Amino acid sequence: MQRPEPIDEEIVLDPKRYIVSKTDKKGIIEYGNDYFVEISGYSEAELIGQPHNIIRHPDMPKIVFKMMWERILNDQNIFALVKNMAKDGRYYWVVTEFETKKDPISNHIVGFTAFRRAAPRDAIKEIEKLYAKLVEIEKVGGMEASEKYLRGYLEEAGKSYDELIDELIGNKGLFKVFFKMMKALFK
């Protein structure tokens, strides 16, 4: 499937709705809820069996996805601010959290469920600056250079990535409560 050309038009998400997708361990889409299908612009048939990066926006630094994959493959949770791209090239911002699915016999990770909500406007304004810098660095020096910059940025701020995201999304527990409720619904 050919990736669309990005256009500078935002899809404003309904803050009362949520996006859910399930993938196998390699990130191949196995399920998407109705809102995911609606917002992505792809039909359910077009999404199932495709790599989840079908919705990856080129404004997203690769280092963020590397960090997310390292965490979730080690059964560690992560909240992330992500800019995704719909089939028509428009974009939308989400706060994402993951849950691992394990084989009941081996206890090995066999898949993931991603829960997403609309990202707060203030968080988007702040993270866009950092992400643009990381993408710029990646174009010149690759992901390794981007990772070094991100480590330095976080060190200078005296924060972990998790603390930065918590601060940006104004996480006073509301997102965590929401995601906990979503996880309970999809078990």
Topology record:
Layout: E1 19-24, E2 29-32, H1 34-40, H2 44-47, H3 62-73, E3 80-85, E4 91-102, E5 109-118, H4 121-157, H5 161-168, H6 174-185
Antiparallel strand pairs: 1-2, 1-5, 3-4, 4-5
Helix pairs in contact: 4-5
Notable characteristics:
alpha+beta, Beta-Lactamase
Summarize the structure.
By secondary structure, the chain is of the alpha+beta class. It is built from 6 helices and 5 strands; from the N terminus they run ββαααβββααα.
What does it look like?
The chain has 187 residues and is α+β, with helices and mostly antiparallel strands. The protein has a domain at 19-120 and 170-185: 2-Layer Sandwich (Beta-Lactamase), CATH 3.30.450.20. The chain has 6 helices and 5 strands, in the order E-E-H-H-H-E-E-E-H-H-H. The protein has a 5-stranded antiparallel β-sheet. Strand 3 and strand 4 form a beta hairpin. The longest helix has 37 residues, at 121-157. 27% of the residues are buried. The model has no long low-confidence stretch (mean pLDDT 91).
